[in-house]
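Workshop exercise sheet. Pairs work together: one partner reads the sequence aloud, the other fills in the structure field after running the prediction. Swap roles for the next sheet.
Pair: D.N. / O.F.
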Amino acid sequence: MVSIAHAEAVSDRESRLASIVWIAVAAISIAIVGLIVAAPLAQAHGNSQFAASIYKAFSFVCHQIPERSFHLAGNKFGVCSRCTGLYAGFAVAVLAYPLARSLKDTASPSIVWLILGALPLAIDFSLGFFNIWANTHASRFATGALFSATTVFYIVPGLIDFARRLFKKKKTANVASLRQK
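Structure field:
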């Protein structure tokens, strides 16, 4: 029979693990936003090799068209305005996540919310693509931020659940190997 103390210990471990996952995701997302802004600053301060490495790394995920990018100190950000919105919106939403939802809750929201979060981005992109209207840095940033902020409520619970399952399997494997000895 499982004791109350054992159940509380398991709950405490799961809470710590959820916090660690949340902190890791927040730190990575803040670091990415930092690199996006660091690229133009590094370029402006004569650290062109460091800036070039940041631009190169982001070139695999973004077109980096200067006319579609924010600029700082006379140099473009590491990514375009839409990608800046995606990364910044994700970082802000991750930081605010524990205020909106318990880290213990790993259930995903209805897929409808994800679709609603993506819809403004799809409309903004489509209207610009078909030359119906010229989207702006602000519309690209805002729609990207909205979409990525929505994804946080799917990604963070998924990562927490994945970590819990991973460590539960690891613990089960360790117990099994101890029993064999």
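Discussion prompt: The longest strand covers residues 71-72. What would you look at next?
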